[in-house]
Amino acid sequence: MTQDPAARDRGDAVSGADGDVAAARTPEVPGPASAPARDADASGEGETQASKRTALKAWGGGVAAVVIGGVATALFTGWFQNDVPDVVDRATGKPPIKVANVTISVDEGPFALRNAVSTQRDRAMLAEPAASEQWQDFLQRRRAEPVGQMNVVAVLEGWRSKARVIDMRPRILRKQPRLSGAYFLPATAGEVSTIPLAANLDRRNPVFVMDKGKAKEESRAYFRSHQIDLVRGEQTTLAMSFTARTAAYEFDVLVNVIADGKSKEVVIRSSGGKPFRITGPQDRPRGYTQVFNESEGAWVQAPPGSWCVPSATNQKC
């Protein structure tokens, strides 16, 4: 059967049109390699970001470790240097401050003995210039006491990370009649220099005052408005002047210290732990048994009629 060419042409046209339509409607499907490629790219970017975050965390952790380590070291060092020694000192009963040194010159001004010089040994020693050690032995053995005024220099040293001196005052241990034995007047003796921190032992409750030569200052206790702070190893020098007119005194100095949250007392005494001693002058020169004047390093006993002795009522000869 023969097909009409025109019909065959129409059929081809229809077929072609349907084919075009099918081709247009059919979407282009990506090749199988497209999805893995994107996954690989995403995976690479993720790994890069994770590496950056890991590096950042490591850097931050290192910085924090250095900072914390430095702070910890500083805290430990401060604790070890301050708190540990304090704990050890408290456990061993070590006082918060120590008296590092005490200096007193008995023969700086006039001084006296309770008894007269009567032994041949002492008379021979006084008749000639004596060596320093021999002279100091005489003063200690005969218990020489300054007359009227004495100056003491004490060095205090801190034994805690912090210690505060809030008060100091003389403590009278013994009160006796004024010495009336031998009286010694050094050649250079004049008015003994006055130190601002002064205490009058004749008062009922002696305290330290700022002695400026004014009567109104006498009632103002120095430590009512002053304190002394000391840290471990720090030193301070205290220059103190003591006066007496009506009696002879044995005394020491009580130091009230705040340390470790508690109030404690430290005692200042002369060398060897001995108390300080001072005597008031006699009311008249005849109140002494003997008077010695210094002459070219030796001590010459003065005749009774030539005695010139500052007394409680007359400070000048």
How are the elements arranged and paired?
Elements: H1 5-25, H2 34-91, E1 97-104, E2 111-112, H3 120-127, H4 132-141, E3 145-146, E4 149-158, E5 163-176, E6 182-185, E7 197-200, E8 209-210, E9 228-230, E10 235-243, E11 248-259, E12 262-268, E13 276-279, E14 290-295, E15 298-301
Parallel strand pairs: 6-14, 7-10
Antiparallel strand pairs: 1-4, 2-3, 2-6, 4-10, 5-9, 5-11, 7-8, 11-12, 11-13, 14-15
Summarize the structure.
Residues 1-12 have a biased composition (Basic and acidic residues). The protein is 31% helix and 29% strand.
Q: Could you estimate the helical fraction of the residues in percent?
A: 25-40%
| Alpha carbon gap, first and last residue | 177 Å
Low-confidence stretches: 5-27
- Overall pLDDT confidence: 77
Q: Strand order across the biggest sheet? A: 1-4-10-7-8
Helix and strand sequence: HHEEHHEEEEEEEEEEEEE
Q: Which structural category fits the helices and strands?
A: alpha+beta
How many beta-strand segments? 15
